[in-house]
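User: Hi! I'm a student and our assignment asks us to look at how structure tokens line up with a sequence. Could you show me two examples?

Assistant: Happy to help. In each example below, the sequence comes first and the structure tokens follow. Example one:
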Amino acid sequence: MENTFADQLPLIIQSFEQQGLVTRTFRRLDIARQLVIIDAIMEESSLHGPAEMNIKKVAARADVSIGSLYQYFHNKEGLLNFAIQLTVQQTVAAFNTFLPYLDQLSFQEAYSIYINSGLEWGKEQQQFVRFFAKAAYQEHPELEDSVVTPISNCMLQLVRVMVQKGQESGEVRADVDTEAVSRILHALSIALGDPILLPYLNKYFQVNDESVPMTQIFSSLMDLLERGMIKPKENTERHP
């Protein structure tokens, strides 16, 4: 993201006020106080899960009264809706910044940059990553449609566009099943990325360790894609 979250915050909060997600009272707070409150919301929801968010603990983390939180978000449900919309909006916007560059990149370049850029953003925006992870990896049906689905749909669509553009350019073999491969690559990017952003998942995925560093994993992934999807380059050498 070109601008920091703090830089974007005034416009975000103004939009959220228009949607009824925050009150004018919250919008009128200075940015530093808004950030403290947002951090408290995201930290509490990331620790215990969005559905189990405790408004008393949010107030304590933010060093504000419970009454003040109600003045900012109306009620606990409003506070949760704010956290949901903020997470979804920021995550989807981060992925969508990648779209304008796809026409300038080969499929292999695009997929590699997609994974690495996602990891870079995720490391910078851990509060959103942890919030999403709680929704994605814990069974909360009410959060599946509001949090998990819009973000995962955005990710899958990006990969789908990469594969389609690769086929259109002739780089990806024409016989590749676009939809099936897009879903496989989508799952692969999650399996590789999430254990890095959320190290506890590496116990399960076992993506890397000291004997197999991530550079080796990524190199092998690109080699696998090249051998499995990429149309062989024609030999243009002339023989006597």
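Example two works the same way, sequence first and then tokens:
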Amino acid sequence: MKDYINLLKKHNLKITPQRLAILKYLDTHYTHPTVDEIYNTLKKTNPSLSKTTVYNSLEILNTHHIIQPLHITGHERRYDLRKDIHHHFLCRSCGNIQDLDINCPNIKKIQEQGYNIEEVHGYFKGICLDCQKREETHK
């Protein structure tokens, strides 16, 4: 919890129980959740929590570059606490979104031209390994 407090302090943000809960949730759930998923889970232990508070907290955390929003599937917005440059894989079968640790060869080329890269979004879509294995066992 101390790391989340320090993170908020570093960005001169007010430390609220809601923001701490959201950061902890994102730090322990690598599912790239939606606002609804975060709200529905946190509401169970915090009955007074509103969806508006979750949404506003996520927007503030995004504005301060603490989290990043993902737009992999149409208009659905998901959230990722991981801020380093990485790509994502969306399984068309189960809907899971997984982090991919692959290097983009073009980043260095662009940086060498003087550009300061703040975000890179690389999305791969297909069938994940687990779904492929399930499909094989049902044949």
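Here is something you could point out in your write-up. Helices lie at 2-10, 17-28, 35-43, 51-63, 106-112, 129-137.
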